[in-house]
Write a structure and sequence with these properties.
Shape: globular
Distance between the termini: 17 Å
Structural class: alpha+beta
Radius of gyration: 17 Å
Number of helices: 4
Helix content: 10-25%
Largest sheet: 5 strands, mixed
Order of helices and strands: EHEEHEHHEEEEE
Strand order of the largest sheet: 2-1-3-9-4
Length: 265
């Protein structure tokens, strides 16, 4: 999946948070979400034309990892807290949440049929993570500033291989938006919890591809971003990780994407 370099479209950024009560309200009769509507809480802002990535379709990505104690009526997270990222969610469960939210909003008349909540493709994820940069991280090539932008295995961790020279302030997951955002306003694209992507894992192609979505079939799904449980090198913008879609872990969550309906899974 070689990155396409020709600008073609706009990326839109959403400012959408789910509190504990709102996550419950989406899929139960009471309590209802305290916002008037989910859709009205989304503020989209044009950011920058694509310069160095294969993502060309207009899409909206949640500026923070999915949060909230409740996830489709239960609490799967190992680390519980109303502002902590949801984790211990399989790829299938994350996708099912996106589908339920899509149906909820369509039934309410707030979402057109050609738009859906979904997991971002790997290309969309990396495009949003880099925010126009070509460095190892979206803040530069030196890891010296990593603890300002990411939650990773550091001096607070007892895990083997931890980067003991750094201090990000947390041993395990941190509340979303605890760290500085990238140039486009996205928080924790580096670290905290890995984030599922839509794609099956596949090797990058040697030719430029616009909107690559991975192979048609596979055994492992992509997740990106690094986590609290691994050293900082795993948080690099280009780092790719993968596992079976049934995996549930305290270091793995997801981020919502709103865009055109994807035909391929």
């Amino acid at each position: 999946m070689k990155r396409q370099s020709t600008p073609s479209t706009w990326l839109f950024l959403t400012c959408l948070f789910f509190s504990q009560a709102e996550m419950i309200g989406l899929f139960s009769q009471t309590p209802k979400p305290n916002r008037a509507t989910v859709s009205s809480a989304i503020e989209t802002t044009p950011l920058a034309k694509r310069k160095d990535n294969g993502a060309s379709k207009v899409f909206t990505l949640m500026d923070d990892e999915a949060i909230g104690v409740r996830f489709m009526g239960n609490n799967p997270s190992h680390f519980k807290g109303s502002q902590l990222p949801v984790e211990k969610v399989s790829w299938d469960e994350a996708k099912a949440f996106c589908e339920q939210l899509t149906e909820y909003e369509r039934t309410a008349g707030r979402l057109p049929q050609d738009r859906a909540y979904q997991l971002p493709t790997e290309a969309q994820w990396e495009y949003a993570c880099r925010a126009g940069t070509k460095k190892a991280w979206n803040f530069g090539d030196s890891p010296s500033g990593l603890s300002t932008y990411a939650n990773f295995s550091d001096k607070n961790s007892n895990l083997q291989g931890a980067d003991k020279e750094y201090d990000d302030g947390f041993e395990f997951t941190a509340p979303v938006a605890s760290y500085s955002a990238n140039a486009w306003g996205f928080h924790e694209m580096h670290g905290n919890v890995f984030e599922w992507c839509m794609d099956w894992y596949g090797k990058h192609t040697p030719v430029a591809v616009i909107d690559p979505v991975g192979p048609l079939i596979g055994k492992e799904r992509i997740f990106r971003g690094g986590s609290w449980a691994l050293p900082g090198v795993f948080t690099r913008s280009a780092r790719r990780d993968k596992n079976q879609p049934i995996l549930k872990s305290g270091f793995l969550g997801f981020r919502l994407c709103l865009g055109q309906v994807q035909d391929k899974e």
